[in-house]
Write a structure and sequence with these properties.
The complex is a heterodimer of chains A (229) and B (80). By secondary structure, chain A is an alpha/beta fold. Chain A is built from 5 helices and 11 strands. Chain B has a 3-stranded antiparallel beta sheet with strand order 2-1-3, covered by helices on one side. In chain B, 35% of the residues lie in helices and 28% in strands. Chain B is an alpha+beta fold. Chain B is built from 2 helices and 3 strands; from the N terminus they run βαβαβ. Classes of the chains: A alpha/beta (229), B alpha+beta (80). The interface between A and B is medium-sized, with 18 and 11 residues.
Chain lengths: 229, 80
């Protein structure tokens, strides 16, 4: 299985993502610079976190229109797997690969801490290693993670089982007080309709080693590698 | 020709920054501010001299990049 990580000016979690993917795959992923129009033939593209283009205009908006992202989008439409984490989620959402948008956190503060996530579904290549309703401990670090979509879009996402993760209490209770950013229905991550694209605000790549305080994120990488190998 | 673009949040989209501004105005003693909505102002200097063509081009720019139409509206004013 081959994976690539797309790097923009301002990306800052690409090396964390590289370590996580390499650990799961057993070989190094290919790093692709944003100006490259030729994307190598890979099974998975990861769009990492950071502050691409300094978050100018809107978070992810400029990166979403870069040549390499156009190619990522075209391949995703043909079925290639794509995961966008944090700023990567913002970028692929701005690119129209996922419904909705990430707004400024409702409390207006940057939030950087561990949160609990409830696995909403396992019927896909990304979360198949987890069990439904399993509670994970994974960090978040963002200023614009407040997921919003109009009522019609929200209905479709829920009806099609497109919610991947929701913010929750350590016991799995999903309530507003466990929501770090004000996102609709505590949504922390969503799939596209065909479930080959996942976007999520939390950082599973920063929960893969006991030294990081949690290894709950690693099964996500293992699941993807298993499904795509 | 210049194009002046205003990008504003749609009704119903929460604007926490606007709310924080309203709160700050209240603490400064400016009473009677019922609501604040914050937006963006973007000025484009265009080479195009035909107004209709300029308007059509800027409309495309707004739809593609300057605004996210999931949450934002935009208005375009052309100035000679």
């Amino acid at each position: 299985m081959k994976a690539a990580i797309v790097v923009f000016p301002g990306s800052n979690r690409e090396l964390d993502a590289k370590v996580a993917l390499a650990k799961a795959i057993g070989s190094e992923p290919i790093m692709v610079w944003h100006r490259d129009t030729e994307l190598p033939k890979v099974d998975l593209v990861l769009v990492p976190g950071g502050f691409s283009y300094g978050d100018y205009l809107r978070t992810g908006a400029i990166a979403a229109h870069s040549p390499v992202l156009r190619e990522v989008k075209a391949r995703a439409e043909k079925g290639m797997a794509v995961i966008g984490i944090c700023n990567g989620f913002q970028i692929i959402t701005e690119a129209g690969m996922l419904p909705g948008v990430l707004l400024r956190n409702s409390h207006l503060k940057f939030v950087c801490r561990n949160v609990h996530l409830k696995v909403a579904t396992t019927q896909n290549m990304f979360t198949q290693r987890y069990t439904k309703d399993q509670v994970l401990s994974v960090p978040v670090a963002h200023h614009d993670g407040n997921y919003f979509v109009d009522e019609k879009g929200l209905g479709e996402i829920e009806a099609n089982d497109q919610v991947a993760f929701r913010y929750c209490a350590p016991d799995g209770t999903v309530a507003m007080e466990h929501n770090p950013n004000g996102s609709l229905r505590n949504i922390a991550g969503i799939f596209n309709r065909t479930k080959n694209v996942l976007g999520m605000m939390p950082h599973p790549e920063n929960a893969i080693d006991p030294l990081q305080g949690s290894t709950d994120g690693f099964a996500l990488f293992q699941g993807m590698v298993e499904a795509l190998s | 020709m210049k194009a002046r673009v205003h990008v504003t949040l749609k009704n119903g989209v929460l604007d926490p920054q606007g709310r924080a501004i309203a709160h700050a105005l209240g603490t400064l003693g400016f009473d009677g501010v019922k609501d604040v909505r914050q937006g963006k102002f973007i000025e484009l200097d265009l080479g195009e001299t035909d107004k209709a063509k300029a308007k059509a081009a800027v409309d495309q720019m707004c739809a593609k990049l300057l605004a996210n139409t999931v949450i934002e509206n935009y208005t375009i004013d052309l100035v000679d």
